[in-house]
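Changelog-adjacent note: as of this version, every example in the card shows the full chain rather than a window. The one below runs 288 residues end to end.
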Amino acid sequence: MRENDAIIRKLAACFDRQVALEGISLIRRQTITAQVITYILDLIKKGQVRPGERLPTEKQLTEELAVSRTCVREAIKSLESLQLISVRPKIGAIVLEPSPVALLNAEYLSTSAFMQQADSLIEFRKVLELGLVALAAEKSTEADWAAMREILAEQEAALRMDRSTPRADLLFHDAILKVNIRFHKAVAAATKNPLAIMVLQAISEPLVEVSRRTNEMPGVPEAGLRQHWAIYRAIRENNPEKARHAMRLHLQAAERNAHSLESAKDHATPPPPTDGAAAVHRSREESL
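Full-length structure tokens:
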């Protein structure tokens, strides 16, 4: 009987892990699909593909953006449902004359996709990282603390970077983004659980996109540093409950920032479109 119970527990653990990984895969796919939609919208709004002309083929988009065909197909289907394009057999996707309502709906789709992704990611991170930080407080060693301090020092150095030009500002945000995610990776490594880093690696793509947007808000990078120091100190004190509390405050702040960002967009003039292809490439290249 005990042997059977053990087998059942192992099967249940495998099932739970598979469900979690499938959920991560869905979040990632939704993120990339939203970026493909943004890229195609930019082509239309900039006049690079005019009404009556054909969009790049599925194969071309897949190769240009370095994404899967599934994401490209989902993006095309969404744009077709909004009557921005018409997919014709043996011809491809033809751009239609865009109406203001169709473009507005497409922009809302992009915003809605971002918020769905952000909410799903933060919800998953609460489940994952609150457990990881408590485990890190129990198992971390002097080597782990030293690694975290080094990352925090790099984060402080990044906050002192020049931001006076658009190029310098871009370098600043890239540096902040990388060091932020490295800190969370260091927390996972301190758990001494090999699955912890694997799971954080799996959610790195959507995490990069959400963090990239929210870290552009005034004061967010500085607040992030303070929150990371609070998490580090709790881990260093080997205090799991204090560590969970510090991480919870950090994730709650991330949730507020994501919602504040979208709320501000609802009441502001839309900014100039960005280079969608570059954004897709960056989000795929960056990782934990």
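Structural remarks: The chain has one domain: 2-285.
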